[in-house]
Specification:
Order of helices and strands: HHHHHHHHHHHHHH
Low-confidence stretches: 290-296
Strand content: under 5%
Radius of gyration: 19 Å
Structural class: mainly alpha
Helix content: over 70%
Shape: globular
């Protein structure tokens, strides 16, 4: 198994976790405001990782700090825009708009690097986006209406795509990048950035139930700390266009978990969409082509 394929499989498994986290977040938002949830999630993760990175942080160069901070700023801005958009947009529509990052990643990567894209990657990207659209097809009437939340979500998707490419360029530019240190800086910056709208827009929770405390810790440890270390490692080997396609599967796994755990209806359109996303991933990998292309 090639390193690229292994890294892509790891990213796919990571999105299974994030798909479950999406369902958990929907439950937690009943009891806690969105921006304080983001703040607690990322600052707790950053604090837990900090003792293991003290020596590395002391030795970090100015160039590393600049690149790692750029990654953190892009990720934080993406989360803030997405969270603001989800306040006024239904979950299905939010998923398909956020999933449009799969369209933006290859083109941002192309304009940034000038690297040619293989035809099967472009076709796989388009097929994945069509699959995401089918998953949200039950809300077709809503998808034709544009509100302020939709614009926030679209801006968030573009920023998420930009983040994928920034991480790719960071890992390619630095001579000895540290995925763990990169994750540390990102977690801390996202937590601080989330604190600003939390203080400005949300009310600090007077109390939190055991479910909220447990959910926040799960998101901090598994959905943030471990997840972003794994993502940063995997992106050392997985090309940015591959990463964009795989990250878009979060909404697919969220639908599957909603069906399995909560009995939500999984319609024919959703099954078709899930199969199209799977086909898009396989096409991106070159599994559905007669001859594997060496370009990304």
């Amino acid at each position: 198994m090639s390193r690229v394929l292994f890294a892509d499989l790891v990213l796919l498994l990571l999105n299974v976790l994030w798909g479950y986290c999406f369902i958990l977040i929907k439950q937690l938002l009943v009891e806690i405001s969105p921006f304080y949830l983001l703040t607690f999630r990322f600052l707790i993760a950053a604090i837990l990782l900090f003792p293991f990175q003290i020596c590395s942080l002391r030795r970090i160069s100015g160039k590393e700090l600049f690149y790692y901070s750029a990654c953190g700023f892009a990720l934080g801005l993406g989360f803030i825009l997405q969270t603001q958009g989800m306040i006024t947009t239904d979950p299905g529509k939010s998923g398909v708009i956020t999933g449009t990052l799969v369209v933006f990643v290859p083109f941002i990567h192309y304009f940034w690097t000038g690297a040619r894209l293989a035809l099967h990657v472009i076709l796989g990207t388009v097929l994945t986006f069509i699959g995401l659209y089918f998953i949200s097809l039950d809300g077709l009437e809503n998808l034709t209406e544009i509100n302020q939340g939709d614009l926030f979500l679209l801006a968030g998707a573009i920023v998420y795509a930009f983040h994928v490419v920034v991480v790719d360029r960071t890992l390619s530019t630095l001579s000895k990048p540290s995925p763990i240190l990169l994750a540390q800086v990102q977690l801390f910056i996202v937590g601080l950035m989330s604190l600003i709208p939390a203080i400005s827009l949300d009310r600090f929770p007077d109390s939190m139930s055991n479910f909220v405390i447990g959910g926040v810790l799960f998101l901090a440890i598994f959905g943030s700390l471990i997840a972003y270390i794994v993502q940063m490692w995997a992106q050392k080997f997985s090309p940015a266009p591959h990463v964009g396609v795989i990250l878009s599967t979060e909404s697919v796994f969220a639908c599957i978990f909603a069906y399995v755990l909560y009995g939500e209806k999984f319609t024919l359109f959703m099954w078709i969409g899930a199969l199209l996303v799977l086909a898009g991933i396989l096409l991106t990998q070159g599994f559905l082509t007669f001859r594997r292309d060496s370009r990304v």
